[in-house]
Amino acid sequence: MFPSTQTWFITGAGSGFGLEVTAQLLAGGHRVAATSRDLSPALKELAQQHGARLWTAELDVTDPQTVHTTIGQAFAELGRIDVVFSSAGFGVLGAAEELSDELLNRQLAVNLLGPIHLTRAVTPWLRAQGGGRIIQMSSSGGHVPDPGMSLYNASKFGVEGFFESAAVELAAFEISVTLIAPGGTRTAFNANIAQAEPLPAYEDGALGQVRGALAGGMDETALRHAVAGDPAKIARAIITSASTTPAPRRLVFGAAAYEAITTAWQQRLEALTAQRDLALSSDADDVLADRA
């Protein structure tokens, strides 16, 4: 059971969900160790408002040594950290063949390797204090394919796989893991998305439509419904989840995300079920004989 006042460590706290969660925690009387690659004006303003309850540090999650050092400093100065919220991330739009090596490496370094570095760094500290929570930003893109988002989807599918396994390992130490899977949300995600250099071959397909929508070519009503998630509501639910026992393994946010993930899982289960006989028949003959 967590104390009524919690201490959180947050990456990507300068904007988006990281900033929203930070602001709500501080307004609720909690302590926050807020980290970001650059300390944004909004984060600096929160520091002026809340004083010692907000601990800040610049942190690039792609630098493993700095991650370990910053984690050590936070635990040393704050004592106990109850919740680690891994929020740093960004999106890349582009067909697989359009992607530059730089975009590929940066996307996986921030969205996938960054959370892995963070988890490796915080685990010894959480074990030593007898437990805690890790809350990891995932996405509906960790379950549902999207045209032009193959690299982003790869990072989020990877996050899902890593934390599903890590959660089993960490449970013995009273360390719980929750994955956050929102759909389109009204943060600056779309405005800040990195785009690969387009190839003419993709202009008339699904990817071209996505690019057109991002460039302002979508009907206003359709856009409102496609990007419907309320960051403040989601942030409140994330904070609430940290005091929920047992910890939810995954929280899905948004009607579109819920429906898309449901459909994807159902289709996979149907395809798997149809292959049952083939799967069982591929075992070695001695195993088949034992099973007969």
Automatic annotation (TrEMBL):
Signal peptide as annotated in the record: none
Highest taxon, organism lineage: Bacteria
Presence of keyword Phosphoprotein: no
Matching InterPro entries: NAD(P)-bd_dom_sf, Sc_DH/Rdtase_CS, SDR_fam, SDR_oxidoreductase
Annotated keywords: Oxidoreductase
MF-aspect GO terms: oxidoreductase activity
Family affiliation: Belongs to the short-chain dehydrogenases/reductases (SDR) family.
The protein's name in its UniProt record: SDR family oxidoreductase
Organism: Amycolatopsis carbonis
